[in-house]
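Quick one, tokens below:
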């Protein structure tokens, strides 16, 4: 089997890996499209120690599923956390925080940059017939964006700011635009503004932000500078959502959060089912973000392209 293999922060293209054998509760899935995301590229820099096949954004076709034969031949997307179902968090309805969880292509479970991979059947969601592969492959990052709406009640009258207009920021902006709130996204480059304009979303430069005026601010930059911009923008008793991870430690004035009574929310994985409904209803247009699709055999070149400045979404196909 062909796959990309990550070991000691080095990525290699291999053709000698065995086709994985699914456990009784798993499905064997053929990758149709897979997306390279920021986490994948950060893992090459040592963000998380991992050896194996990376990749967790996918749309695939079920090849074998002993516990759910009705899924064979169906297009699916899948939640990336493989959980035990028995720990205190699983039993309390917090499975994404399972004490024993594995994460597809990130921790303890080979990912989707391969011809085939496996996932538990309970993680899978059928792709609606009217949702193309080029949109379905964005289900995981879009679900992460929709998670903000699960955590924060955003009113139509709210002023909302997204800091960061890259791959993740664009997905977040599309999700938050559904609330009817007064939404603006901090941009630095013309292409970011053009993509937002295609969805009717307003762009704003950092210099035009009025400090302390935003009800909800989402930091999607993963950088200390982005956090600083977001912190200055949020009003007293406002909400600051951290939507991307930070490499290393983040220094900030904790006292100001106390004095201004800021609500600080970490946000990670999100709900797949409502995200797929939004895609089926054409309320999101993630395919606008695709820059290029590479064959799996050119995966190393695809990663180099994805790392270039100003590039949005790079996909791999088998």
């Amino acid at each position: 089997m062909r796959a990309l293999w990550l070991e000691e922060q080095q990525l290699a293209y291999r053709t000698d890996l065995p086709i994985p054998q699914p456990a009784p509760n798993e499905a064997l899935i053929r990758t149709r499209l897979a997306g390279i995301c920021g986490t994948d590229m950060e893992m090459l820099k040592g963000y998380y120690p991992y050896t194996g096949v990376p990749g967790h954004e996918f749309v695939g076709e079920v090849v074998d599923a002993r516990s759910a034969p009705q899924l064979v031949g169906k297009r699916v997307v899948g939640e990336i956390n493989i959980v035990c179902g028995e720990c205190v968090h699983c039993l309390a309805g917090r499975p994404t925080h399972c004490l024993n969880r594995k994460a597809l292509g990130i921790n303890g479970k080979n990912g989707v940059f391969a011809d085939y991979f496996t996932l538990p059947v309970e993680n899978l969601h059928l792709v609606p017939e009217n949702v193309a592969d080029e949109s379905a492959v964005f289900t995981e990052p879009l679900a992460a964006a929709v998670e903000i709406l699960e955590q924060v009640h955003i009113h139509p009258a709210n002023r909302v700011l997204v800091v960061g207009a890259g791959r993740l920021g664009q997905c977040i902006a599309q999700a938050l635009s559904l609330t009817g709130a007064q939404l603006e996204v901090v941009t630095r480059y013309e292409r970011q503004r053009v993509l937002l304009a295609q969805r009717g979303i307003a762009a704003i430069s950092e210099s035009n932000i009025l400090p302390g005026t935003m009800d909800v601010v989402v930091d999607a930059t993963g950088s200390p500078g982005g956090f600083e911009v977001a912190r200055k923008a949020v009003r007293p008793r406002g909400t600051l959502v951290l939507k991307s991870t930070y490499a290393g430690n983040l220094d900030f004035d904790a006292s100001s959060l106390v004095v201004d009574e800021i609500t600080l929310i970490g946000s990670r994985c999100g709900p797949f089912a409502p995200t797929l409904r939004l895609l089926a209803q054409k309320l999101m247009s993630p395919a606008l973000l695709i820059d290029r699709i590479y064959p799996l055999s050119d995966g190393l070149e695809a990663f180099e392209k994805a790392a270039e400045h100003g590039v949005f979404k790079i996909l791999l196909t088998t």
